[in-house]
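Example record used in the benchmark description.
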Amino acid sequence: MKLETFSFLKNRGCSLPSLPQLDSESTLVLAFGSATEPCTKWLSELAAAYPKSHLVGGSTAGEILGKSIHDDSLAVAVCRFDATQLRSATVPIASTSASKEAGRALANKLMGPGLRGVFVISDGTSVNGSELVQGLNAVLPEETVVTGGLAGDGDRFQKTWVLDGDCPRSGSICAVAFYGDRISIGHGSKGGWDVFGPERVVTRSAGNVLYEIDGKSVLGLYKLYLGELASGLPANALLFPLSLRREKSREEHVVRTVLSIDEKAESMTLAGDVPEGSLVRFMRANFDRLVDGAGEAARLAKKDTTSNVLAVAISGVGRRLVLGDRAEEEVEAVSDVLPASSQLIGFYSYGELSPYASGRCELHNQTMTITTFLEP
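Model output (structure tokens):
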């Protein structure tokens, strides 16, 4: 397996003197870039240089390459596998309500003998991530490792894109699938947020719209807890996500980000479903624990090897907003844990896709999620 990572930077161009000569039907090209115009030119260069390869990627709330975070750039990984077959696919998503069916359609395109893993990048503003995952899980075999994330648009939440062939397009979901016995895929996802306040029951919700917890207006409770920060809703809600578990008998919880609020309905729209009867607690940031969580995600995904490792880091946009100038610390924590033979690429997202320690894929928000690919 041969691997190169590099970037295109605004006003500077490509960080390499020439693009790696790795084009083949077994080559994956990952490209994560800003939602702004310069990416179109850079993506065209990649498509021309790698006509046989599988080009997959999307827009971001910040690009990760090595131990650095950039904006208005394009972070690229080119990986040619020796003994792993690849297949890529794209499906449109007409509306949020079509998320589950889009997941099923994408999974059906990728089904085949020897399927080991699927890496997914979805439009981040027109999808219900929970239903997308349900659609994928309904079709794909249980042993298939599914990871990925929802594309970002900085802190604007207006318009995201994913790659449809070589074209950046909104309203789409793209993926690459891996087939064969040689591919080894690791995964890990951790948050590091502190929970506070009592655990409460979701008493009224509809999909990813939350109305009441413990019979009280969720918006009213948020405003009570946020105090002076409530005037900055919904943006400030990124700093106070919800911890959710579906039932008392399950210890595992996922994090849910608030995307928007409706003052008239006193509701909040989250990045994933919040089923009635599930249990939620408020969360807040602890800088050191966020950084430690990123390192723990890397430890879960780590494979002890001296072979080349493609490591993909997808972190929630709220983490970057909270950490501010310290955001690179969580990227450094990931890099320090991974094998020295790893090359790290990734982006800040509107949602992360990964199993827990094992089992089916789940939608996470505001976690650091790591996926590793190698051929031992």
